Amino acid sequence: MPIIDVWAQHPTRRFIQHDMFDSLRNWSGTSLPPDQPPLSVTVAAMDAAAVDLALISAWYGPEGALISNDEVAAFVAESGGRLAGVASVDLRKPTAAIRELRRAVTELGFKALRIVPWLWELPPTDRRYYPLYAECVELGIPFCTQAGHTGPLRPSEPGRPIPYLDQVALDFPELTIVAGHIGYPWTTELIAVATKHPNVYIDTSAYTVRRYPAELVAYLKSHGRGKVLFGTNYPMITPLKALDGLDQLGLDEETRAMFLHWNARRVFQTLH
């Protein structure tokens, strides 16, 4: 069965060496490479877990681009169809951000926009996001974001599903929202928001199967089986490690296929 990873990065040196990830490495026991790895390392990690396609994102924050949109485009071009691009932009420059998002989608072929709220210490209801939401609707792409606490030593408050994502979904009912990192410790809140709003989805990035909360597993196996997408947060977690224990979840064949593949195809409608 083909597998799609909806949240990954092919890291640059700037990304790998940033000190904000020190606490995450210490907590998870992850050993990131000291320098930018060749793309073959990322593809090999995908192959080890039979991941067919990974959506890799740019990273923009107040300090600038840790992974630029053009770098992502180059990785995608080199990958021979194994990677798809997800844009990021500079929230401090709203007009330029819209133009850059439009360029990333229409010229570079990117499939979504991702903004990580804790990088900016700005919740998703901040006025600087709103023009970008409207542009995502016009471009027909999802808005991807992080929900839940932060591994890096940054404030977790911007990751609360309620009130922030709930309000955004109310203000932009046509916007498709994919909330990564399962929303922990507010997973029940995120499930409530995804249940309430037809266009809100959850991805499992940054968590291994063995660490999925019981309420998320129950949701995946019942009325949420069309709402949960597989993600890794590679290189922090490899696909093989992320999927370890999947057979023990007791998913039926259809639910498993939806989780690993079909939900992503439906949500990211421009994937080929």
Give short descriptive properties of this protein.
alpha/beta; 272 residues; 39% helix; five-stranded parallel sheet
Indicate the topology.
Layout: E1 3-8, H1 13-16, H2 22-28, H3 39-48, E2 51-57, E3 59-61, E4 64-67, H4 69-78, E5 83-86, H5 94-106, E6 113-115, H6 117-120, H7 130-139, E7 143-146, H8 161-171, E8 177-180, H9 187-196, E9 200-203, H10 214-220, E10 228-229, H11 239-243, H12 253-267
Parallel strand pairs: 1-2, 2-5, 6-7, 7-8, 8-9, 9-10
Antiparallel strand pairs: 3-4
Can you describe what's shown?
39% of the residues lie in helices and 15% in strands. It is α/β, with parallel strands linked by helices and 272 residues long. The strands form 3 sheets. It has a 5-stranded parallel β-sheet with strand order 6-7-8-9-10. Helix 8 links the parallel strand 7 and strand 8. It is globular and about 45 Å long.
